[in-house]
Amino acid sequence: MKTYKVLVLHGPNLNLLGVREPEIYGAMTLSELNARLEEIASALGAVLRFFQSNCEGELVDALHEARTWADGVIFNPAAYTHTSVALRDAVSAVGLPVVEVHLSNIHAREEFRRRSLIAPVCIGNVSGFGWQSYALALRGLLGYLADRDAAA
What we know:
152 residues, Rossmann fold, alpha/beta, 5-stranded parallel sheet
């Protein structure tokens, strides 16, 4: 069984998880979320690298760098979901399978949050399940990679 390498990319304000609007985003910190994902990845034979930034350019750079080592990406672009053509272009340019993920259900929130510029260039998206959105995205991405490799 191949060991897949996955970048888990967290966008702006996710460093404030656990304190920022816990009624929307939950009480779990980013460190706790990453630790839970690490446990799941270990059980599934995957290796994760985590990166969080509040800066759009740093997120673009992380996607570019992932081309050299990652098999896929789990990406929560956060507020950039609705505004960043640069991140959309970076996801498209790197040629890696990317799953867009959100803690809250963006389709049940304010009108401006219901449109994602990133989703059309991703293989899928998961939202509304709190930290479990990341776990579902990880399982989905790993299944996608295994199926793709089996078909090759």
